[in-house]
Amino acid sequence: MKYLLTFIILLIQIGFSQELIKPRICGIIIDAETREPIAYANIFISQSSIGCASDKNGYFELRNLPYGRYEIIASVIGYEVLNAKIGIYNNSRRNLRFEMYKQPIQFPEVIVSAKESWKRSSQLKQFRKNLLGTSQNGKKSYIKNEDVIRFNDDKYGMLIAYADEPLEIINNSLGYRIHYVLEDFELTKDYVKYTGYPHFIEQTAITYHDSVDWPENRENTYTGSLRHFLTTICENYEITQGDTAKRKYRFNLADVIEHKVKVTYGDITHIEDQGFYVLQTVGRSGRKLVNTNRFLSETDNPNEMYLQFDGSLRVHYDNELFPFEKRFGSKEKTSWINITCDSTVLDKQGRYFDIYAINTSGLWSKERVADMLPFDYIIGEE
User: CB of 234 within 8 A of CB of 305?
Assistant: First the structure.
């Protein structure tokens, strides 16, 4: 019995020591002027479900983090939002210190006429449509605190939106409450551009339908998304050990779709098995079915890769695998992407870190905040 007890204690100690050496981010938040700690500030990793609140001493800790590159956001009402970019590549503790300056709270706009009321209603409608999207996910989502949103129309017809507090977005399709720190929003007749820091808080399913629908909707949202595609090409690179054999003939789309022609990487067809067919278009040289390994190269971080290619990639989907018609109300099965810079870095969870580095058109351009999943979501693990 004595030896058994000693063995159990040893196991506990080993487990505790392993817990201590796992990557974590610790820190403190203080008022930059008074030097007093700020309690109950929200600290989270952007685009994830990982977050916490600072305690009464302003202390916070994010534990058990996988290796990778993160953007840490600190927000609390009445103070400016702060962010810190940090990389974790070993089992170490990283320390942060946020010094926050007070920010005056803007009161909601006072509507004094029917014309102003109609104008704000129209602006909110445009804002919702372009931020949340028009997919089935977007239609089942809403912004709980729209009164914090302010608008400005410039003389060129651009609609600009601000929010001095994080938006509280309720996604009733995927089962998330999204704490969304809006950085900028611009809308013209030609384009929409927005950036922000989302934190996903998983909702508790109240009904049986929610417990069944939410996991299914999350999987359908991931399947065929830009993130799914970027994750897939990284997986293919690993599976095929970086083989960069080049497809040497021009392809016929009918052959690919109807006759299931595949790009082979040795004996492996991982990208096509996931339902993607990838073409490259460069100038007038026509479209070629390509091996995407040619566009990837390794970085010093084993969880990240460089992505670089000329022209644009045209991505077709297997009609049998992707439920796009139900999600977007469109029978379109194609997306295009191009890189706006020489190259960009992406991780093996499908994230890319320069938000303006990749332009999309086709179905992927319809994806909005309501179609986002936290990067720590892993398909099939629910």
Answer: yes
Distance of CA 304 to the CA centre of its chain: 16
Structure tokens, 2: 């004595």
pLDDT band, residue 7 (cuts 50/70/90): very low
For residues 147 and 120, give the distance between their C-alpha atoms in angstroms, rounded to a whole number.
10
Q: Where are the domains of the chain?
A: 2-100, 114-202, 226-366
CB neighbour class for 240 (10 Å; exposed up to 12, middle 13-18, buried from 19): buried
Q: Is 60 exceeded by the pLDDT of residue 235?
A: yes
CB-based contacts of 54, cutoff 8 Å, min separation 6: 28, 29, 37, 38, 39, 40, 41, 43, 60
| 2-100 CATH | 2.60.40.1120
Beta strands across the sheet bearing 82-88: 51-53, 42-45, 68-75, 82-88
As a whole number of angstroms, the distance between CA 13 and CA 38 comes to 34
